[in-house]
Design goal:
Helix content is 11%, strand content 37%. Strands 4-5-8-11-14-17-20-23-26-29-32-35-38 form a 13-stranded parallel beta sheet. Strands 6-9-12-15-18-21-24-27-30-33-36-39-42 form a 13-stranded parallel beta sheet, with no helix packed on it. Strand 1 and strand 2 form a beta hairpin. 41% of the residues are buried.
């Protein structure tokens, strides 16, 4: 092989214009020679160090490869089990084998991977068996405040106190990971699947979370997007506290306590989520303001949507079906637009506990109620009779469930008829002056086949 530096050997002789190669009779500038050395040396080092393989003779452990790595290097792990607790303190990529059989096992001690540098990427790994001390924030992957722009993609995390903990690391991307909690603990004693605190501009997308405390927990977070995640058998699918200007779209929570617990937040876009077969609330809105709740599905929950002290919102185009209570309004919601929704076959369509009646229509359009008993003489698809969504009997049957056995009795039917015909007897209620005669949208696929939507 020809040596690229052969023209710079000491055999060169001085000429009036510079150095001449006696073998090639070529003029070589000393400056060009120096640049050749610097460039080739840098290129050689880059080629050698750009990709580090673990294990290898030079790097038997992940920690050894990180210690030797330069900024921007890729560390590739072979298939196998690495029993290490790793700190990534340099900007680099930690990449699992193509068959996804690179396993980092923390042996039940502390956090398995800690990220303390910006622009780190961790992908294609199985990370398992962190410590189980919730108070110490033991996690499979923990990113500190210094770990801005961290990207965690395509990892499988299991036996973790917390799956992924992002602690103040702005611009994180958490994409297509699978998190499974410690099954040996009670649900309330486990950590969260994805725990986010005090970030801006985050993307949490396409993750699958099973058997943890809260699937995705966010606090003090802004201008971030939570998209297309699936949570199953958790406490709260998405748990929101003090987060403003965020998007929550396309997420599904099944077989949990609460699908989405959205609290103390403003200017949210909550669109096209599905909450299926949850034991308590499908979607809980507590102190939510100036937000849009559109196109969501609440199916088979105890309460489809629960509203408490949440105002200046827009609740439109949602599908609420087969819940014990379709929508519960405990306080607030006076200045909220509620139109174009579909309330279908809920045991109690609306549970209403407020001093004043609310009108859920815009005088041209209202909502669809499957129990509406009205008519449409002018064939405009709008009922000609006002719909009263709740009455005193609904409250009594909610507070005393055994009364449902008497729901069709002549006495209960008489009391309900008297209340509807004599306004003086009527309690404050949700009133729809323009009820739709037909559902406002086709049946969602998640309702047609709810079992296929879950993990």
């Amino acid at each position: 092989m020809i040596n690229p530096f052969s023209s710079c050997y000491p055999t060169l002789r001085l000429n009036s214009g510079g150095l001449t190669d006696p073998y090639r009779n070529r003029l070589v500038s000393p400056i060009a020679c120096l640049l050749l050395f610097v460039t080739a040396s840098a290129l050689s080092n880059r080629l050698i160090a750009a990709d580090l393989q673990v294990p290898s003779k030079q790097f038997p452990t992940i920690a050894a490869a990180i210690a030797a790595a330069n900024r921007g290097n890729n560390i590739h792990l072979a298939p196998g089990i690495f029993q290490e607790n790793v700190t990534v303190d340099k900007t680099l990529a930690l990449i699992g084998s193509p068959d996804k059989k690179s396993i980092i096992d923390g042996s039940g001690q502390g956090t398995v991977i800690t990220v303390t540098a910006p622009d780190v990427q961790i992908s294609g790994l199985e990370v398992r068996h962190s410590g189980d001390v919730i108070e110490d924030s033991d996690a499979c992957i923990y990113a500190t405040k210094k770990a801005a722009n961290v990207k965690l993609e395509g990892n499988a995390l299991s036996q973790c106190a917390f799956g992924i903990w992002i602690n103040g690391s702005h611009h994180p991307q958490v994409i297509n990971n699978r998190v499974t909690g410690y099954q040996k603990k009670n649900l309330s004693d486990r950590g969260n699947g994805i725990h986010i605190w005090n970030i801006q501009n985050g993307l949490i997308k396409g993750n699958r979370v099973f058997g943890v405390r809260d699937g995705i927990y966010l606090s003090n977070t802004g201008t971030s997007s939570i998209e297309d995640n699936i949570m199953d058998s958790v406490r709260f699918g998405i748990h929101y506290m003090y987060n403003d200007n965020n998007r929550v779209t396309g997420n599904i929570t099944c077989n949990s306590m609460v699908g989405q617990a959205m609290m103390f937040s403003k200017r949210l876009v909550i669109n096209n989520n599905a909450m299926i077969n949850n034991k308590d609330h499908g979607m809980l809105l507590r102190a939510i303001y100036d937000s849009a709740i559109r196109g969501n599905i609440a199916y088979g929950n105890n309460k489809g949507i629960f509203i408490n002290d949440s105002d200046f919102n827009e609740i439109t185009g949602n599908w609420v079906e087969n819940n014990a209570i379709g929508i519960a309004v405990m306080a607030g919601a006076e200045k909220t637009k509620v139109i174009g929704n579909n309330f279908i076959s809920n045991a109690v369509q609306v549970l209403f506990s407020w001093r004043y009646s609310l009108y859920w229509d815009n005088e041209k359009k209202g909502n669809y109620w499957s129990d509406y008993l009205g008519w449409d003489y002018d064939s405009d698809e709008i009922g000609d009779r006002i719909y009263y969504a709740s009455n005193r009997m609904d409250h009594l049957m909610y507070r005393h469930p055994k009364m449902r056995l008497l729901a069709l009795s002549p006495v209960i039917q008489l009391l309900q008829a008297l209340e509807s015909r004599f306004p003086v007897l009527r309690s404050a209620s949700v009133i729809d002056r323009k009820p739709a005669m037909q559902p406002t949208m086709p049946t969602p696929v998640q309702v047609a086949s709810p079992e296929k939507a879950c993990l």
